[in-house]
Amino acid sequence: MLTSPDQFQIEETAKMYKSFTAAALAICVAGSANAATCGNDASGFAAWKQAFAQEAAAAGVGQRGLQALANAQYSQSTINADRNQRGVKYALNDFIRIRLGSIDSFAAQARRVKAQNANFYASLEASYGVPAGILLAIHGMETGFGRNMGNTPVVDSITTVAYDCRRASFFEPHALSALILVDRGGLDSNQRGAAHGEMGHTQFLPGNALRYGVDADGNGRVDLYTVSDSLASTANFLRQKGWQPGQPYQEGTANFRVLNEWNAATVYQQAIALSAAAIDG
């Protein structure tokens, strides 16, 4: 990712919490008779995994997913990142300078990426109504166009935060989703991502990947570590959240409000909209 620990708070309630409804996946964790008990350090992780495996099996997780859970390691780096969020906030100009350098330089880079496969971006806009500029701005903001998708094993990080008491109820369904993705071949059990389980080119949490993922290349599985599946899934997410094709997306519009579903930080939304306009010209 393009964030440092000092910048992480912008995304605590934003990228890290791209909207996800557990009910949409028909997964119920809280009511389990054998509900796994959360903890605040590594000491209870093994016992939690054993209990969570029963919940996962009841939710339909198969052998590959269960084996990935059994092999999962407590991620201290995830907990460190979680605890080191400092509540830093930026004015728009500072955010752009720190994250992008400048709108012009970022847009120029995005246009070069677009030129490598212009037909692909045109096909996404035709299918979902989301302009190339928006998708490229998100791709660049999230992972530098795929250069930095994270270095923490996804199953380790997502099970760690599902076990951790601070936000266990939020992350448990995402942990189950990650195991389901392993079963389906959409996530390698050792695949790496960001500190809280965000995965792929545009950093979906596993539950969102399961719900909004698109097999754009037609190979029979959703793989968010490919550009085609990741950006098609991003476009699908925005469309499902209310994106209106052919309508403006600058601040004050309905489409700008849809960007809040992707990232709840206003400064992030502003930077995406400004960058997209510069990319699309």
TrEMBL record:
Domain Transglycosylase SLT: 45-250
One family name in Pfam for this protein: SLT_2
Coiled-coil segments: none
Family matches, as PANTHER family: LYTIC MUREIN TRANSGLYCOSYLASE, MEMBRANE-BOUND LYTIC MUREIN TRANSGLYCOSYLASE B
Keywords from the named record: Signal
Lineage top rank: taxon: Bacteria
Record's keyword annotation contains S-adenosyl-L-methionine: no
Keyword Signal: yes
InterPro entries: Lysozyme-like_dom_sf (IPR023346), MltB-like (IPR043426), SLT_2 (IPR031304)
Extent of the signal sequence: 1-35
Species name: Cognatiyoonia koreensis
Any one Gene Ontology molecular-function term assigned to this protein's record: peptidoglycan lytic transglycosylase activity
Single biological process term from Gene Ontology: peptidoglycan catabolic process
Listed Gene3D superfamilies: Bacterial muramidase (1.10.8.350)
The protein's name: Transglycosylase SLT domain-containing protein
